[in-house]
Amino acid sequence: MKFFLDFEAEIAELEAKINELRHVSSIKGSNLLDEIANLEFKAKNLLKSKYSSLTPWQKVQVARHPERPHFSDYVGSIFERFEELSGDRNYGQDDAIIGGLASIDETSVMIIGQEKGYDTESRIKRNFGMARPEGYRKCSRLMKLANKFKLPIITFVDTAGAYPGVGAEQRGQSEAIANAIRTCLKVEVPLISIIIGEGGSGGAVAIATADRVLMLENSVYSVISPEGCASILWKQEGYDEIAANSLKLTAQDLIKLKVIDNIIKEPTGGAHRDHALIKENVKSNILNSLNEINKIKSEDLIKLRRQKYLKFGSSLKV
Looking at the domain covering 60-315, what would its CATH class be? Predict the structure, then answer.
C-alpha cells in the first residue's frame, strides 16, 4: 500500500478508485478500461500539477517520505564491489553513518552516507540517521584514507541533524563535526556531496563541504529543521510551516544563493515513485561532476574549494 502525504489526498482518492475498478474488472470480467484510463490520466495530471508548485513545507514532507530511497538503496544500485569500513579507531562504531570502498563505472571511490533506516528495528540501529561523534570521526578517518590512496570521495546527506544527546556532547560532538569539515577542506581529491533527503544543520555540513554539492529536486538543506527553528523563535507549536517558508531550504532557493551547484531532477511525484529513475539520474550526475573535477589539479582543487566557502559570509544577500 502506498503512503500518501497530507497534500496528496485528492491523488490518493483517485488511485484508490482506480484500484477498486481494476479489482472489479478482474473479478467480474467487466470492461472498465476506458474509465480506468480516464482516471489514470486525471491522476497523472493532478500529480504533475501538485508537484510543480510545492511549498517549502510540502517539500520538507516529501524529503521525509518513508518510501524515499535511502543511502543504502543507492549503494546497492549505482556502486559495485562495496566494502564497508567500520569504526572511528577511537571510541566505537556508529551505524548512523555507512562508509567504505566501492567503484562506479570502474572508478574506485570512497563513499560515505547517512542512513535513517526503514522499519522500527533499523531506525533504532541507525539512530534515525543522526550521527554521534564517533560517526563524524569515522568520516574524517575514511576521508583521510581516501586522500592517502588518491580516491575521489562521494558523500550522501540524509539527516535531520547530528544527535543532540548528553553522551554525544560529552564525547565532543561539536569538535568531531568541526574536524570533519576541516578534513573536507584539506583533502586533495575530488569531493562530491549529494543531498538525497534532509540536510540538517552541522550534521549535514560535516560531510557536505564539497567541491560539488548536488541536491535532489525535492530535498531540503538548512541550518536547522523547521520545527527547531519554530521552537526557538516562537516557543510554541503551530509555526513549523511558517519557519519552513522562511528558511530558504529548498533546492530552488539554494541554487540561486549559490549554496549548491546543481539540482538533480526527480520523477514526477517525487523520488519515492520511481526508484530506478532517480538512481539513474544520481549516477549520471556523479559521473559528470567527477569528469569536471578530475580536470582540476589537486593544488588548485583545495584553493577553489576554500574560496567557495569563504565567499559565503561576504557575498550572500538575504
Answer: alpha beta
